[in-house]
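Quick one: structure for this chain?
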Amino acid sequence: MAPPMSPPISLAAAFLKGLEDALSPPLRAILWRVLGLGLVLSALLIAGAYQALGYAPSTGWGWADEIIRIAGGILAAIGLAFFFPVVMTTLQSLFLDEAAAKVTARDYPADPPGREVGFAEGLASGLRFLGLAVMLNILALPLQLVGLFLPVVNILLFLVLNGYLVGREYFEQVAMRYASAPEAARRRRANRGLAFGAGVLGTGLMVVPVVNLIAPLVTVAAMVHLERGVRLGRKAQG
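Got it. Here's what it folds into:
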């Protein structure tokens, strides 16, 4: 059964719908799973920092050595508090395909569910993305140096560079559920403005405190709605 046709969704509407999806029970389950993993990982890192300081040169006073170890653990905890959103974003990226499937099942039950992106295909896509990210950051280094004196340059560079990368990765990740990796890339290039705009909005959410904890889920859910509109539009034109 062919999915019902619907008018294309705007970026703003897609992200509002994505926020609703991210707070729904199916995606909340992913969020709690990721939060648990993040807390366990953080606890292990703090414990590792505490234990590692046990191998530091001794002061000769047992109480002083213990204070140093405790202080090191506290400093590690403070550092992780700043980086915890990054940890959450990284862990959520492992569940983007599952999140896309849950959004489709929740909002478009009459649509074909799409295929599960295999580990090998997902890994190849991730490695290509990583290589591109490294290359673009190296090329952008001169502008980053300029940004040391003109902060607005760094802000714009951050939004443009990461907006492109996030838009590319998330659009193709969702599109690969209904197409091969090369075809998903072609669709993204044919709709590069839409993918880039979604990437900029997603990047913006990822720097907002508290919101950044669910930003990847909001972004992938929004991309499901946008990619569906593109895909159905192609079928209508065909």
